[in-house]
Write a structure and sequence with these properties.
Blueprint (H helix, E strand, L loop, with lengths): L21 E3 L5 E3 H6 L13 E2 L30 H11 L8
Antiparallel strand pairs: 1-2, 1-3
Length: about 100
């Protein structure tokens, strides 16, 4: 099941489970849309993959036992382990390659 992380790993903006501006990579690294577009240029600083909008888990049971009430979002905040200069180098070297070709 997808881990719904509570914050942008770059700017620490809160990204609740129903945030429409949450973006994830295939490893579930989580960033806000502004950081993905304006800083990271669609390059995950952790894996160099691309980003997609994070799905919103239903808050109400439409199927018995399947909702945020039964599978809540994570409360563990994450942060980057790379500095901004390292991220800029990775982004510059990778942004010209389509995510499917990385």
């Amino acid at each position: 099941m997808l881990e719904l992380r509570p914050n942008c790993e770059m700017c620490d903006k809160d990204l609740p489970a129903d945030a429409s501006d949450a973006r994830i990579c295939s490893y579930e690294c989580t960033f806000c849309a502004a950081c993905v577009e304006d800083v990271l240029e669609n390059v995950c600083p952790n894996c160099a993959g691309g980003f997609v909008p994070r799905p919103i888990r239903p808050k109400l049971d439409r199927r018995n036992g399947v909702s945020r009430a039964h599978q809540p979002a994570s409360t563990t905040r994450r942060g980057l382990k790379y500095d901004i200069e390292d991220i800029a180098r990775q982004t510059a070297a990778t942004k010209g390659i389509a995510p499917k070709d990385r």
